[in-house]
Design brief:
Elements: H1 3-14, H2 20-32, H3 34-55, H4 61-106
Amino acid sequence: MTCKEVEKWIPLFLRDDLDTDDLREFMEHIDKCEECREELSIQFLVQEGMARLEAGNVFDLQNELKHRMNGARHTLKRRESMKWLLFLLDGFVLLEVVIIIILLIVL
């Protein structure tokens, strides 16, 4: 993934609109690229900071961004675990179908 692609995906990340594969690619790039991490931080600060200022709320945006990044990592792990679980369930269903067909042929 290139820095240009990451810059385009930052608003999607901030809205939690990335699917599992895109989120994985995005997080891997952000973890490795200081410039893109800085761009993410700037866009987050501008977006959230403006909203908070308008609402008159107190905020610690750097800490909130850190929590959002940790939450994204957790979400990614959970989604990938579910993906494997669904893959295993599909395998069990296929195995059951094969067993039923064999039993029907034998009996």
